[in-house]
Amino acid sequence: MVRVQAQVMGKALASPPMPELPEVEISRRSFAERLDGATVLGLHMGKPLRWPLGIDPEQLLGARLGLAQRRGKYIWLPLGDGGLLLHLGMSGALALDDGTAPLGPHQHMALHTDRGRLTLTDPRRFGAVVWSPSLALDPARKLLAGLGAEPFDPLLTASALRRAWKGRRVSIKQALLAGDVVVGAGNIYACEALFLAGIRPSTAAGRVSELRCARLLEAVRQVLDQALQLGGSTLRDFSDAHGVAGAYQATAQVYGREGQACRRCPGTVKRIVQAQRSTYFCPLCQRP
DNA sequence: AAGTGGACCTGCTAGC
DNA sequence: TGCTAGCAGGTCCACT
Question: Which of A5, A45, A149, A283 is deepest in the core (most CB within 10 A)?
Answer without folding.
Answer: A149
